[in-house]
Structure formats: C-alpha cells, structure tokens
Amino acid sequence: MVTTVAHPRVEHLLIALCAALAAVAICGGSAYAGEWVQVSCVNPNQTGAGSQGWISMIAGGGYGSNTNSNCGPGTPAYALLSTAGSVFVGSAETLKYIPPAGSTLNGGEIDVSMAADGHGLNASGVAVALTPEYVYDASNVFFECGFGLPACAPLGSNDFIGMLELPAGRGGDLYLSAQCEGSALASCSEGGSSGAWSLVNLWWANLRLSNDSTPGGQNFAGTLLQPNAHAVSELTFTALDPEGPGVYRVEVQVDGTTLYNGIPDSNGGACTPVGESGTNLMFDSSQPCKRNVAVDVPVETTMLPDGTHTLKVTVTDAAGNSSVVYVTTITTKHGPASAASAVVLGAPNGNPTSSEGARLLIKGPAHITRSFRQRAVTIAGSLEESKGAPISGASLDILEETPAGAVLRTLGQARTSSNGTFTTRVPAGPTRRITIAYRAYAGANAYSAQASVQETVTAGVVLRVTPGRTSSTGTITFSGQVQGSLPRHGVIVELLMYHRGRWEPFRDPRTDGHGRFHVSYQFEGALGRTPFRAEVFGEQSTFPYATGLSPIVYVHTS
Description:
With 558 residues, the chain is mostly beta strands. It has two helices and 42 strands. A hairpin with an 8-residue loop joins strand 4 and strand 5. The protein is elongated, with a radius of gyration of 28 Å.
C-alpha cells in the first residue's frame, strides 16, 4: 500500500503547508501506482464471482463453434472451435478480457484447460493465451498448445490442465483463443478431441491490475470542525477516486492517533474484498467501490484534552492508493457532566428514549470457528432497554479487533428493526473479536451496551497437482496458494501423502509473499490412487489464521 507521507519531517511540513492553505483538500497523492485483483468466475471461497470485463470474439468458427463468457463454480467460460465441420486456417473463437477504465493489466493467474488435437494438411488446431494484443506472434503469445507444436503438457500431450501466470508489465487486454493456424486455404478437418479442433476453458482468473488514481476529498463540514468540539462529533465530506477502483477506506487521525478507520460505503457488498493476494485486495467487480462517496464519520473526542489539535483525513482506494486529503486544526472543550448532557450530546439513539440501561444480546455461541472460505459472518441479535422492551431504530457500531493490534476498528453500522432485532453481515476477515456496540445518545462519551463474538478463522490453502495420471515412477508437480494476508517472507506449507493408513509429511515448501508455492515429486513404484493434501500451521509470524487444510486431491499411477 502506498502512503503519501513517508517521513516524520515531511509529514510535519505537509501539515504546516496544508494548515497555511486554509485546509483545502490538496494535501497529498500516491507516489506510485497501487494494485488490486479482479476475480473472475470463482471467488477464493468458491462462490460465484461473475465475469465482468470478459466478452466473446468470433472469427468464422463455423457450425457448432461457440464462445461463452459466462462462468461460475464448476462452469467455465470457453472458446470452442467445433469438429461439427472443417474450418479454414484463420478461424477462431476467442475470449477477451478488457481491464476496467483507469486500470492496467499487470499480471495475475488463470486456471485453464486447453485441448488442441485437430489438424489437417498444413493446418493445426491451436489453443493459445495472448497479451497485450490479439496478434499471433512471439511478442503476444505467452502460452499455447497445438498439434505438431512442442508438447504443452506432461507426457508429450497437447492437452493442458492447470494454472498459468500472466506476464507482468505488458498492459493491454487478455485473449484466450481456440484457433486453426497454418497455410492459407488449408483447413482443420481431422483428429480433434472433446468435440473440438481446439478448445480453451477458463475456470477462474485472478487478474492483477495497476492503477495510479489519486484519491481526494471536498466539502468538509460537521460539528468536529466547529469551535470546542466534544463527545462524539461529526465530520462530513465527499471522498473521491476519480480514475480508480473506488473509495475503500477513510481514516481520521487527531494528533497522530486514529479515531476512525472504516469503509464508508460497501457499494451493495461489491466493495467488500473477497480475499487478499499478498498485500492486494481482491474483488469480483470491475468497479468494486464507488468513485464518489458521501462520508459521515462519527469521531470520538473524549480522549482528547481541551485545546487545539491537528486533524488529518486520509482516503485510500481499493488499489491501495492513499492520499492525505485534508489537514486542519480543531479545538475541543469538554464541560462537566450534568443532567443536561443528553441534550448537549444529541438526540437519543433509538426508541424508547430511556435506553441508558440497555442490554445487547447476540444469538448463537460466543466463540465460532470458520473456514477461510466462510469467514464472512452474519451476526443477529437484539437490543432492549432495562425492563425488556425492544429499542427500535437504534444505530449500532460494528467493531473489529485482530490479534495484530488492540485497537478496535469500525467496520460499519447496523440498525435495529421495529422489534429491536438486527442482522448484519460482517465482511470477511482473519481471526478476530467482533463487537456490536450501542450508544444511548448520539454524543455519548462511551457505549452503553456491547456484545462480542470471537471468530477463529482457519487458514485457506489451494492445492493443485499435475498431471493427475502418471506412471509408477513418474514426476508430478504440486502448486498452489495460501490465501489471505501473509507476512512478506511467506509461510511454511506442509505437503501430506496418505500412506499406510495415515497422513505422512514429505515436503515443506515456503511460499512467496503472495502465498504461492511450487514443488516437484517423483513416485518410486507406487500403483493405484494416492491422496495428497496441504496443511498450513496457524500462528506463524504475523499470520492471523489458525491451522488449515486443503481439500484432498488424487493422483492415479499405473
């Protein structure tokens, strides 16, 4: 993640400059392009991700040929050059990915299956991946399978199944194409497999996108900016991300202490990350967060002494581009508590108004354990006053505390219904304590009622083995990825083989900072079906997850 201020002295000068300029929102911008990941077809938790950005291109595929850009779990997007009829050289069915406006394709991973067994006199079926342009040459093709070409898969096969890494730094678009290539007027008319001269299936894609948008802010107002702010004061403004994937997070600091850090608008859930790839957030939308967000931030000032303070507001977009958008001075003054404090602090929060002795109840157990795929959690409960009557229309804060820090972070708000109940979906996160909190009055110094759930999240790890069939002395390749936020030096993955009635470890590779690992293994005379899985131990350095296991994968040897 890129931040605007990199050195305390620079920050001091910036604050002084912004204050001198009457706190206009010109106080920062990202020095380097941020990155984010758009997910296609299947999310890390195996739910449907959609296929935004993918379109079909057709170039004379003939009868039965087709391209379909729709995809989901178990259903790939595909480009198929059909054996229903011979096709001339130059015919093609192609999937094309167009990056969102303002973002540039800069690598990533795709999970594909390719077949290219069709041919003819001076013609070959070809399944090919290209970027940045749709031109069949060495500067664009980064992977291909083709009849008569060097084998693209183990055992000399023209059929490939597995993950491909996209080349970084090329930009442009991405193309997955089923083609017939060769001499002019020749045709693909023999062979083929799976009903195709050539075929590309796209099972999922994690598309890394760079973006250098500079977040901004305007129209700052609210009681926090008025003289002698106190209790919970309000800061309103419009957060902007003119050319980026949208406003993801707003942070409000006073004298260097963070008083608010949250997602101002979830955009109907699209702005909630579906996972993390290294330090990059993953979303399943081409425009995950809104570019223009009306922000209304409650700021707790009670821990500030009376006097003058420096206020700093930072806006971060979904690509990690971060800007200090506002710096000014504020004043606080906290008078003695009195019976009139409710009037000073603000209107009662909910109905009935006598809610100082409120009770907040959460349905379900106080400690839950969930898999990485299911770490987003729905919490339901109720709010009632001291005599048991429901409190309706009350605003509740959703807070998160992770093992990495003791500071509660605001994730969002929920509101009670007419019978005092509430249901809120908490965005996916690591192992953490989730707290639902209620203030009796809008300006109350502290929460009147709280209830918490401790969520333990097991590590997520994806394991792939290629090929799925080999000889009794054949070599197989394990590849995969540990999901979520990882330390820069990666984590240790233990590979397990089921042998003689128990799981035995045989390799323990370390992932890179993005969670990826890759290792080979040669059988020594094994016959039949051998199960494998991967295990990631919890509590590795700054790894905020409990021990987790991958699904079992099988290899057949003969």
